[in-house]
Write a structure and sequence with these properties.
By secondary structure, the protein is of the alpha/beta class. Helices cover 45% and strands 14% of the residues. The protein contains 18 helices and 15 strands. The strands form 3 sheets. The chain has a 7-stranded parallel beta sheet with strand order 3-4-2-7-8-1-9, with helices on both faces. A 6-stranded parallel beta sheet has the order 10-15-14-11-13-12, with helices on both faces. Helix 15 links the parallel strand 14 and strand 15. The longest helix has 38 residues. The protein starts with 13 loop residues before the first helix and ends with a helix.
Length: 478
């Protein structure tokens, strides 16, 4: 393999280096690795090694902050999330070199990059784009199955913005597909559709509908065509690896922190200020009995704050889960509050659940449905599903809320990370930006000397004074 010279702050795994080299060679490509294998790092590696700045990242809303943090963690470049506060100044910030990356969600493409649309039922030629799109030398399109419909507004906007960019990097955990026509829009955005003879030739060669399950002869022809399509994609513009194929390069378990905005910021800030004031009073108190009573009250306030953060993350959690499931991989989702379980079940009516309100029979039926592949999503309460269950049908675990201790986190993670699991397990922690989540995450994963001494599994906040003092110190300092 060609040696990769890079300035990334971490050393990529060998298969990731291979992916970066592939991207530098192809320039306009699709990363189709399974979730958890580092498509984000590889695409950042391509942009950084090629110095293809400024770069635009188009991604789901729930991943904007994560992209900002990943660029700033892996490179020495500053990333800017496009929001109202920079609606008019972002071009200036890029031109002056104060930021090198702009990040936008699909739903905001029109707001920031489209000046006018000349027709109601418009085509791409009817869109007048903000000329500042020409500042970008590269574009990363995350979860690019979102632009598979060429008639959709977002697909047209992405195609117009990507036009002419030297580096166009698309990311999807499910690139090929039972509907070859889904690739037409994505190949067009990459500027590669003509390599397949254009739209009409592509449809003639590979078809546009679902694969036929009926007539053997016809299915053989379609299979041969899809094999040819797959070979062409791998040769021209796509790289895809599965977890099972690169297991020797991966740790058994990988944790990924995903920072998201909360939707109830004002309510959260009031509760946070109330707790901060209460803790100041607590620290000034010298009476041991009063301090003990105040500590118990403060624990209640900490639990309230965690609940408010969790409620504020629900919208982003639903967005994350929808995008994850679109990759065709099953997911285990942990939370705690009944109302959050209910909102998640409302958003995913086909999901199964294991909660304290379910009978033993219902819990087992849910586990069986998940393990057999009948359901792709299982929603688990930390208290009811944190121990005992085997959920090895998935190697991906996500926390909307997380337990108070490291031991309890491991118990939840190990529903997937246990005998029978063939893949590396990826654990996603959805962390509310500027909330108590950061404090809890730090206690769980970096203050293990504290967290390891506390055993729970009932999802109640530990009442140990050492844990409380650590919680208070981190909360006040952050």
């Amino acid at each position: 393999m060609t040696e990769l010279k890079h300035n990334l702050s971490i050393e990529p795994y060998p298969y990731q280096k291979e992916g970066i080299i592939f991207g530098l060679d192809k320039k306009r490509l699709l990363y189709g690795d399974e979730p958890g294998l580092g498509k984000t790092l590889q695409s950042i590696g391509v942009v950084d090694c090629a110095n293809a700045y400024p770069c635009l990242v188009v991604c789901p809303s729930s991943l904007k902050i994560n992209w900002q943090r990943e660029f700033e963690k892996f490179t020495d470049k500053q990333a800017l999330v496009l929001e109202n506060s920079v609606a008019t100044t972002w071009p200036y910030l890029l031109k002056m070199g104060m930021h090198h990356v702009a990040i936008v969600n699909y739903e905001s493409l029109r707001k920031y990059f489209v000046w006018d649309i000349r027709k109601k039922d418009f085509r791409l030629k009817d869109v007048v784009f903000n000329p500042n799109i020409n500042l970008f030398k590269s574009i990363i399109i995350d979860e690019c199955h979102r632009v598979k419909d060429p008639s959709a507004q977002q697909s047209k906007f992405v195609r117009g913005i990507a036009e002419g960019k030297p580096y166009r990097i698309m990311l999807s955990g499910t690139p090929v597909v039972n509907r070859p026509a889904d690739l037409i829009s994505q190949l067009s955005i990459m500027g590669r559709l003509q390599e397949f003879g254009g739209r009409s030739q592509f449809l003639a060669d590979y078809g546009g509908g679902e694969l036929t399950k009926g007539f053997a002869g016809k299915q053989d022809d379609e299979t041969r065509n899809l094999d040819h399509l797959s070979a062409e994609l791998y040769t021209r513009c796509m790289i895809r690896r599965e977890k099972a194929k690169v297991l020797t390069e991966l740790p058994d378990k990988t944790r990924t922190d995903l920072y998201v905005e909360i939707s109830n910021r004002d309510e959260y800030m009031l509760a946070e200020a109330d707790l901060a004031e209460y803790l100041r009073t607590y620290k000034e108190c010298n009476d041991l009995e009063i301090r003990r009573k105040m500590r118990m009250e403060a624990l209640v306030k900490f639990m309230t704050l965690r609940s408010l953060s969790a409620k504020g993350k629900v919208k982003q959690a639903i967005d994350f889960a929808k995008n994850f499931l679109a990759n065709g991989k099953p997911l285990i989702l942990f939370c705690s509050l009944h109302e959050i379980v209910d909102e998640l079940k409302k958003a995913f009516p086909k999901a199964v659940s294991v909660t304290g309100r379910d009978s033993m029979t219902m819990k087992q039926a849910a586990v069986d449905a998940f393990q057999s592949g009948k359901s792709q999503l299982i929603i688990c309460s930390i208290k009811a599903a944190g121990v005992g269950l085997t959920l090895t049908a998935s190697s991906n675990v996500a926390f909307v809320e997380f337990p108070w201790t490291y031991a309890d986190c491991c118990q939840c993670e190990d529903r997937a990370h246990r005998i029978g699991q063939k893949d590396n397990v990826t654990c996603y922690y959805l962390i509310g930006k500027n909330t108590i989540d950061r404090t809890l995450y730090q206690i769980i994963h970096t203050k293990k000397s504290i967290a390891n001494q506390i055993m729970g599994t009932d999802d109640d906040i530990p009442k140990d004074e050492m844990y409380f003092d650590e919680l208070v110190n981190l909360f006040i300092n952050q």
